[in-house]
Design brief:
By secondary structure, this protein is an all-alpha fold. It is built from 11 helices and 2 strands. The chain is globular, with a radius of gyration of 18 Å.
Length: about 230
Amino acid sequence: MPCPENLEIDGLRHKRSPARVLTELVVGYSLILLAIWTPGAIQRAFMFAAACWIIATSLPGSSTVYGLRLSRLRQGWWIIAAAVVLAGGAAVFAACIGTLQIPFRYRQNPGNTTGYIIWSFVQQFILQDFVLLRLRRLLPSARAAVLAAAILFSLAHLPNPLLTAAAFFWGIASCALFLRHGDLYSLGAAHAIFGLCLTITIPDAVDHQMRVGLGYLRYQPPATTHSARPP
């Protein structure tokens, strides 16, 4: 997927040294991985540390202003429309083959849907504004930065094979679209649409309820399941 090489991004003009940018990226990504691969209270501590680090390194003077400009939403509306069409087609196909479902965690607590939507936007913020723009400063080309960001994004979804593959391809697509349009909101919405589509079309036994890291390995299937299809 082509990435425009001559695109000027506000966040890439900051005067932080490459060493500082690399340190910010390595520490932030390491804290994310530690949160993914640790349990309980330790995980929450690493999640809090990662959030604090990302916020602290994304204050004024960094890259974040670019992706959060509401004015750019009008350039990416078609991304949301395309996601709806693709997800709708996948849902129809899943209904035909009998895999359409209401995931147990959403049936048990409908509020999980809202939580996932918010988390989708957070992930896109981290991927584009925290990871991609720093890689764009460190690497010689936009294509290299997009590929590196997609690889880091997919590695954060191990050992879930479905999400690891999906994260790689979505990472490439979303990063390329971000460099072209600079709209974080449409990408967050598309992420949520695609993610929720996976939850209702892929059996929990395959995706382990969309878990990654230690959660994927420790997954225990719920006692009951519920299908969206009528009996």
